[in-house]
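User: Sequence recovery, please. Input:
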């Protein structure tokens, strides 16, 4: 049965939610609803579990990979078919990620014999090949720098080191975490917009979640020692949650964490501004960059965030501003564009728009002959959205 340590998992998840929110009061914490376990039968003997936001709703769905044929079977949150794709060679390791930053998870495959990552698109066609790590490493993927695009990485069981790479396969960071025998995992545990590392320890069926510096933050007992760990944002809160896949009965068990406990501090009626830094100046001899000051303010009530004001600094005459949204709470149309002369009208049209936790916004300013400016924002549950400049 699932799992004998469920009560400990409940308390650990509640405490983790409080730490991530930062402002949750102790009395509200005691009244927080406990996590629930979603059970989804899916798979077949020998298949590998995969997870991803296949359709850009802001919620993670499940899937399976058949290593004997190199076939990916994508399913929705209820286990219903979405798509079947053939990619890679038999017995490669399946990987998933939002390689192009469009808000949808794409598939990929890792060749353990050569340490090559093969990244695919949503149709299963090859888009990029990267070499990273050494043969025998365990492949990882995550948005390590908060750019809105998934990067690659590797975990080396021999020394317990995580080697995080960038979108081009160059080394980004090395972090030590866990013990020998652990299984590496990755996720945005605190809703910051950046992926952190973690491990699942089969010896005691416990998840250990770390921060971006490799420091342990939370231990959550869940599942059985023979389970395969999986992660995802099961309910669109903007934070990654844990789960397991049980090969013995071909079933996913998702530990669904409720939104942060309700207190008066998660209802904000005075607009709060998200700081978005200017892109760095262009280096000498490089193509000039677009550098426009963007300010955006919000109010929110729990998982619903309302855009109150969007302003642009001085826009070059030929600039084009595009505001796009990915996630299940995005209003239609999901993308808006305007030239410099109409940017204020665009901002006015977006005023009052409501987004949901887990939605991702991207504001792009393009000018012919310059490197575009891209600002990525992630809507959070009961907190101000986080924003950062995406490197081009």
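Assistant: Recovered sequence (392 residues):
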């Amino acid at each position: 049965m699932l799992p004998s340590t469920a009560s400990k998992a409940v308390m650990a998840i509640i405490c983790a939610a409080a730490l991530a929110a930062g402002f949750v009061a102790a009395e509200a914490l005691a009244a927080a609803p406990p996590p629930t376990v979603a059970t989804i039968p899916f798979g077949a003997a020998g298949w590998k579990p995969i997870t991803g936001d296949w359709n850009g709703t802001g919620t993670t769905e499940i899937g399976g990979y058949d290593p004997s044929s190199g076939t990916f079977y994508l399913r929705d949150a209820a286990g219903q078919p979405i798509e079947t794709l053939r990619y890679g060679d038999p017995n490669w390791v399946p990987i998933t990620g939002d390689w192009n930053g469009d808000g949808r998870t794409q598939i990929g495959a890792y060749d353990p014999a050569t340490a090559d990552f093969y990244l695919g698109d949503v149709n299963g066609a090859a888009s990029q090949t990267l070499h990273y790590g050494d043969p025998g490493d365990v492949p990882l993927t995550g948005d390590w720098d908060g750019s809105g695009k998934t990067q690659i990485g590797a975990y080396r069981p021999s020394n317990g080191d995580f080697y995080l790479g960038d979108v081009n396969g160059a080394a980004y960071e090395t972090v030590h975490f866990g013990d020998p025998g652990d299984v590496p995992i990755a996720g945005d545990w605190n809703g910051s917009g950046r992926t952190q590392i973690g491990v699942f320890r089969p010896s005691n069926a416990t998840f250990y979640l770390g921060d971006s510096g490799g420091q342990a933050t939370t231990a959550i007992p869940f599942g059985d020692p023979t389970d395969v760990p999986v992660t995802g944002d099961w309910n669109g809160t903007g934070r990654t949650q844990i789960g397991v896949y049980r090969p013995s009965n071909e079933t996913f068990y998702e530990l669904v964490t409720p939104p942060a406990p309700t207190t008066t501090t998660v209802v904000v009626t005075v607009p709060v501004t998200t700081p978005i830094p200017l892109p760095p100046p262009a280096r000498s001899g490089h193509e000039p960059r677009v550098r426009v000051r963007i300010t955006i303010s919000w109010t929110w009530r729990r998982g619903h965030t309302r855009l109150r004001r969007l302003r642009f600094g001085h826009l070059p005459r030929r600039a084009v501003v595009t505001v796009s949204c990915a996630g299940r709470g995005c209003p239609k149309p999901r993308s808006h564009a305007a030239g410099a002369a109409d940017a204020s009208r665009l901002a006015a049209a977006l005023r009052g728009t409501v987004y949901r936790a887990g939605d991702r916004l991207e504001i792009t300013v393009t000018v012919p002959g310059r490197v575009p400016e891209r600002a990525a924002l992630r809507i959070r549950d009961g907190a101000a959205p986080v924003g950062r400049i995406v490197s081009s």
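The first strand starts at residue 36 and ends at 41.
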